[in-house]
Design goal:
The complex is a heterodimer.
Chain A (H helix, E strand, L loop, with lengths): L25 H30 L11 H14 L1 H33 L1 H15 L3 H12 L3 H25 L3 H9 L4 H38 L5 H10 L3 H29 L12
Helix pairs in contact in A: 2-10, 3-4, 3-6, 3-8, 3-9, 5-6, 6-8, 8-9, 8-10, 9-10
Chain B lengths: L16 E13 L6 E3 L2 E3 L1 E13 L3 E5 L6 H9 L6 E6 L2 E2 L7 E4 L11 H11 L4 H14 L15 H13 L5 E5 L7 H18 L2 E5 L3 H7 L2 E5 L6 E6 L14 H28 L5
Parallel strand pairs in B: 5-10, 5-11, 8-9, 9-10
Antiparallel strand pairs in B: 1-4, 1-6, 2-3, 6-7, 11-12
Helix pairs in contact in B: 2-3, 2-4, 3-4, 6-7
The chains are: A mainly alpha, B alpha/beta.
The structure holds adenosine-5'-triphosphate and magnesium ion (MG).
Magnesium ion binds next to helix 1 of chain B.
């Protein structure tokens, strides 16, 4: 009999920011260093170009203020608490919409994946709604729910719910029938079958859907704030643009990029944790 | 699915009789559009079991051999309460089985461990769904884990264990609830020969202590003889009991017993009973290749 080896360190290398820090893997540290080392020059060149091009008059500094000016605007907005306030509002909207999507999509997906009749009834409706863009529906949300928070939460909900729903259904359908048989032979109740067998089997798929859903929610709330809002990071960017305060606009955009990085890092780490029981070769790519 | 509150039923067997199979028949209805050629005729129904009668005593270790496709797994499913017989019934302790029985445990060829649970959590599972408290089930699971020499592997996920270790966990999980009846469907078939020998001996060592009733399906004649008090030979599909062979070898048994003359004699006897059925089953397969899906 061969002794089992610990596979947890054999995860294929990924780009440095997508690798969960909790997993100690020397090869990935080396990989991370080389990824930064190789990737940094390109970034620096871009930054330098951004700084110099407006200063040398290659491009209009009104549309493209030098990077240093963008950073000083950024520092100002951080110092005054303005940035934190707008980010807080955007994240809160996205989080509420996404949270509602989780609450709705997972139970619904479990039922649709498990009971064919239920799926047949609802599938056509879901397919129709899924192929309607959340942005196309924004005017409807505003008409029905008003210009306030509700319409923004609705759009983030709508942006996430189908990723979660479809992936939950797929996850449920991929449950190994042998696991169900084994569970039943041990006297598992219907409820426990859902909670202790079907749901855990579907977790990798659900978590993958959640990653897409979180991003989609955040992007949607930004877009919605640009179109119709008095607060939020999307509003901040859009309003700065209208006021020709382009240094603030770029500061807002860079902030979004940074949030995107953090979010992706967090989600990948979460996914790795939620699916750490899987054999490493089954682990999906980023 | 909840555990069966069993309805009493007079089976008319002596009270040392743990499992009774009475005229168990099973016919599968194929899905629309599927058909199979049986005795030269096209049919959408497959008769798999055609009247199985068998009594298994309390504490008896019974092995079942029979050609592939003869319905051995279906028979275990019926005893387990996972499949309903088309006709006849299986009874445990005089109660007809209609749903998974509290006192029955089932071990599968493909281990069927939950990959998202650690070894220890897998063994805890049946205790958990029975509502055993956290501390108590942890302690009990740990006991069975140790019993199978898996101390130190509590927190491993199944994907981090070898096949032999996974099957040990699966058997430990089955035994954790002190089942009266242990059903095993080719549990060692996926393992290499050495691991298989080791696990056979381990299973016997533990069984000698707990003496639960075991129904063990296997394709290995040696395994069938080595483990059994009694071997049940099934006919080709549609299956019945062809013959039962009592194995009078002393216990506890050592793996060396396979080299004895007595063992050899059993080997010949089982193979004699099986040969004709296996060739029948092979002819059946030739027809089954006309399976129109
Ligand atoms: N759900 C089902 N629907 C239709 N036919 C089935 C079903 N389950 C089993 N069968 C058929 O019943 C027959 C017996 O199956 P079973 O799995 O019990 O055989 P077995 O004796 O366990 O074979 P093996 O030794 O290969 O495991 C096979 O011909 C199989 O095709
Ligand atoms: Mg079988």
């Amino acid at each position: 009999m061969t002794l089992a080896t610990d596979n947890s360190t054999d995860i294929p290398p990924r780009v440095w920011w997508s690798r969960p820090a909790s997993l100690p893997a020397p090869s990935s540290v080396r990989h991370a260093i080389s990824a930064i080392g190789l990737g940094l020059p390109a970034l620096l060149v871009l930054a330098l170009l951004w700084e110099l091009a407006p200063r040398l008059g290659w491009i209009n500094a009104i549309f493209f203020p030098p990077l240093s000016q963008v950073f000083s605007a950024l520092g100002e907005m951080i110092g005054s608490g303005l940035l934190a306030q707008h980010i807080g509002i955007s994240l809160q909207r996205a989080a509420i919409g996404f949270g509602l999507a989780v609450i709705v999509a997972i139970p619904l997906g479990l039922l649709m994946g498990r009971y064919t009749l239920f799926e047949k009834i609802s599938d056509f409706l879901v397919q129709t709604l899924r192929n309607t863009s959340q942005f196309a529906l924004l005017p409807v949300f505003i008409l029905v729910l008003g210009i306030g928070e509700a319409s923004k939460i609705a759009i983030t909900f709508y942006a996430a719910v189908f990723f979660l729903l479809i992936n939950t259904i797929v996850g449920v359908k991929s449950v190994d029938p042998l696991h169900i048989k084994a569970a039943r032979s041990m006297g598992t109740s219907d409820w426990d079958l859902f909670a202790k067998v079907i749901l855990p089997s579907a977790v990798p798929s659900i978590v993958a859907g959640a990653r897409l859903g979180v991003k989609s929610s955040l992007f949607s709330v930004i877009a919605a704030e640009m179109l119709a809002a008095q607060s939020g990071i999307g509003y901040l960017i859009q309003n700065s643009s209208l006021m020709l305060e382009t240094d603030r606009m770029y500061a807002g955009i860079l902030t979004l990029t940074f949030i995107g990085f953090l979010l992706n890092y967090g989600l990948v780490a979460f996914e790795a944790r939620a699916t750490r029981w899987r054999a490493s070769e089954d682990k999906g790519a980023v | 699915m909840s555990l069966a509150p069993v309805s009493p039923l007079p089976v008319g067997a002596p009270d040392t009789n743990r499992i009774a199979l009475r005229d168990v028949r099973k016919t599968f209805q194929l899905k629309p559009g599927q058909s199979v050629t049986l005795d030269g005729r096209l049919s959408d129904r497959i008769p798999v079991l055609s009247g199985v009668d068998l009594d298994i005593r309390q504490g008896e270790f019974v092995t079942i051999v029979g050609p592939s496709g003869s319905g051995k797994s279906v028979l275990l499913d019926i005893i387990a309460g996972l499949t309903q017989a088309t006709n006849g019934f299986a009874a445990i302790d005089g109660h007809k089985v209609s749903r998974p029985h509290r006192e029955t445990a089932y071990v599968f060829q493909q281990y069927a461990l939950f990959p998202w649970r650690t070894a220890l959590q897998n063994i805890e599972y049946p205790l958990e769904v029975r509502g055993v408290g956290r501390a108590a089930r942890r302690e009990r699971a740990q006991h069975f884990l140790n019993l199978f020499g898996l101390k130190g592997f509590e927190d491993r996920y199944p994907s981090q264990l070898s096949g032999g270790m996974q099957q040990r966990v699966a058997i430990a999980r089955a035994l954790a609830t002190d089942p009266q009846v242990l059903l095993m469907d080719e549990p060692f078939a996926a393992l290499d020969a050495q691991t298989r020998d080791i696990l056979q001996s381990e299973l016997l060592r533990i069984w000698e202590q707990i003496r639960t009733t075991v129904v063990f399906v296997t394709h290995s004649i040696d395994e069938a003889i080595f483990l059994a008090d009694r071997i049940v030979v099934m006919t080709a599909r549609p299956a019945q009991v062809k013959e039962t062979i009592a194995v009078d070898l002393p216990r506890p048994r050592d793996i060396e017993i396979r080299n004895s003359a007595a063992f050899n004699a059993y080997r010949a006897r089982v193979w004699d009973a099986l040969r004709e059925e296996v060739s029948k089953a092979q002819r059946d397969w030739a027809l089954a290749s006309a399976y129109n899906a």
